[in-house]
Each structure stands twice: as C-alpha cells, then as structure tokens.
Amino acid sequence: xxxxxxxxxxxxxxxxxxxxxxxxxxxxxxxxxxxxxxxxxxxxxxxxxxxxxxxxxxxxxxxxxxxxxxxx
Length: 72
Prior knowledge:
The protein has 72 residues and is an all-alpha fold. The protein is 50% helix and 0% strand.
C-alpha cells in the first residue's frame, strides 16, 4: 500500500476512533487495532460477508468508507 494512503488511513481512522470512548487503545496496525477500527467502521454486509480484517482488501474498503480513496 502506498505510504501516503496508509498515513491517510491512519489519520482518518484515528480521528474516527478519537470520537469513541476514552478507553485504552491498542497500538496502530496491530490485530487489536484493526478490530477496533472494524467495530466502528464495518466493512462487511452484516451477514458475515466481507474482507478479512487487516487485509489489503479490508484496508481499501475502510479507505472508501472514510472517503480517502483517490486522495494519494
């Protein structure tokens, strides 16, 4: 993944997550962090279908849902 896209994803996801509870947050780009993002920005269809959390496809879906696609 392009570094600018990844940094944009991290920045936008961080902003989304900052709006959540003030609880301890996992380190960025860990499995726990990806799950926390998924809990707030769902990538699937609600019926168990969707990309594997943390995969390149998943990152692309999250970028799209956060409006980051095409901003690199």
